[in-house]
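Project standup — Tuesday

K.O.: blocked on the structure for the chain from last sprint. Re-posting the sequence here as requested.
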Amino acid sequence: MASYSQLIHRQEWLQQSDSDIRIHYVEARPSGAQKGIILLIHGFPESSYQFRHVMGPLSAAGYRVIAPDYRGAGYSSRPPTGYSKKDLATDLQTLLTAHMGIEEPVHVVGHDIGAMVAHAYAHLFPNAVASLVWGECPLPGTTAYDEQKHTPAVWHFDFQTVPDLPELLVAGREKQYLKHFYDREAQNPAAFTEADLEFYATLYAAPGAMRAAFNVYRAFEEDKADNRRWLEEKGK
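H.V.: unblocked you, prediction finished:
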């Protein structure tokens, strides 16, 4: 099985006139006939690295597999604005169509925050979606989100939307902060090795990385309004 470093790594500037929008992605291609294309969208606090163990088997099964770091995460750039899920989804659609030349519908798979992005992707670009798989998130705009957003189970929803304070408190303690989520939320915390923890801690300790991550949460109310509007306009 190919390691993360052995997969194909690339990055694209989505607008040549704006160096702030740069998306890094990882790709695995099938050795034989291609059955389709799978777009994997990661969650928080992770990056495209979270899919390293499944990209090889999926490509071996005949799929071209693309796992980007969405705006602000992983090795992608960290602009100060544009963290609504429709913005993140539009980035990925631009990457696939304008830069990778993909014209066929893709299978979209989203986990956690990636699920919110996948939902927005399907609403914005329905003809570009062959199938949609998403989970492990209360979608802003739903009853589940409204009932859970202030509960202890998702305390970070409130904490990470406070202006500036989370950045101040987490600075220099990124590794400890991330480890809390892996230990508490993972079905198998032992799956996160010390090397994995160091990898993610290095990414999220980079300048602007935690602010970008928190901005994804600060956009939830905008996402809520978007999701409710789409529901009214298009139905389920």
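K.O.: great, moving the ticket to review. The chain has a mean pLDDT of 94. The longest strand covers residues 18-28.
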